[in-house]
Write a structure and sequence with these properties.
heterodimer; A: mainly beta; six-stranded mixed sheet; globular; B: mainly beta
Chain lengths: 120, 108
């Protein structure tokens, strides 16, 4: 069974750093893209960016370029989403998703989500 | 920046047909995808490449495309179909992924 399992909920203060993870299993991790999607409380879905763990090719949404860093460690089949200095506006649910090389728009499956709360 | 436009809400009675539209200038060039999200759960893909249905998705879910508008149709709506539905596609260059604002389907 293809699965993406994300790290647990985080509570942080403004200005702190954070790295959340997404571990893939049940498929060849290096042959598919892994993306990240943000959902702010009560709001819609926003595409943040995507990485190809096979060669670390990474693309960012213009809205998130420079605000976050996406990386992957193929030796442990894990992708990461990282912030160097969190803001209250980063409070959201973050989902990782898998997509095909030939169909990067098709997100399937989704991880269970990681809730990030940033509050002083 | 590129946008996909969905109606905020659609309401139907059980057994009726629900149609949710999504409009975008690049839709004639780029495929559309649809996701269902129930409260407290991660989204689930229900339609890909305009009209293809993933395995495990009920046949009552279908998709179609016409010009700059794509439509998700749910035939014989059931109470369990009450959820938020998001369309998704790429910009005209195929570089950036975009989601519509979401449509809340209410089953009366």
């Amino acid at each position: 069974e293809v699965q993406l399992v994300q790290s647990g909920a985080e509570v942080k203060k403004p200005g702190e750093s954070l790295k959340i993870s997404c571990k893939g299993s049940g498929y060849s991790f290096t042959s598919y893209w892994i993306g990240w999607v943000r959902q702010m409380p009560g709001k819609g879905l926003e595409w943040m960016g995507i990485i190809y763990p096979g060669d670390s090719d990474t693309r960012y949404s213009p809205s998130f370029q420079g605000q976050v860093t996406i990386s992957a460690d193929k030796s442990i089949s894990t992708a990461y989403l990282q912030w160097s200095s969190l803001k209250a506006s980063d409070t959201a649910m973050y989902y990782c998703v898998r997509s095909l090389t030939g169909d990067r728009v098709r997100f399937d499956p989704w991880g269970q989500g990681t809730l990030v709360t940033v509050s002083s | 920046s590129y946008e996909l436009t969905q109606p905020p809400s659609v309401s139907v009675s059980p057994g009726q047909t629900a149609r949710i539209t999504c409009s975008g200038d690049a839709l004639p060039k780029q495929y559309a995808y649809w996701y269902q999200q129930k409260p407290g759960q991660a989204p689930v893909l229900v339609i890909y490449k305009d009209s293809e249905r993933p395995s495990g998705i009920p046949e009552r879910f279908s998709g179609s495309s016409s010009g700059t508008t794509v439509t998700l149709t749910i035939s014989g709506v059931q109470a369990e179909d009450e959820a938020d539905y998001y369309c998704q596609s790429a910009d005209s260059s195929g570089t950036f992924v975009v989601f519509g604002g979401g449509t809340k389907l209410t089953v009366l």
